[in-house]
Amino acid sequence: MGKLKGHVAIVTGAGQGIGRGIALVFAKEGAKVAIADRNAETCAEVTEYIHNLGHEAIAIICDVGDSTQAEAMVKEVGDKYGSIDILVNNAQRYVPRRLVEEIEDEDWDKSIQVGLKSTWYCCKAVFPYMKEKGGKIINMCSGSGLIGLEGRAVYCATKEAVRAFSKTVAREWGKYKINVNVICPAAITPATMFMKNTDPEEYARIVEGAALGRWGDPENDIGRVAVFLASSDSDYMTGQTLVVDGGNIML
Ligand SMILES: NC(=O)c1ccc[n+]([C@@H]2O[C@H](COP(=O)([O-])OP(=O)(O)OC[C@H]3O[C@@H](n4cnc5c(N)ncnc54)[C@H](O)[C@@H]3O)[C@@H](O)[C@H]2O)c1
Question: Which atom number of ligand 1 is nearest to the Cα of residue 118?
Answer without folding.
Answer: 31
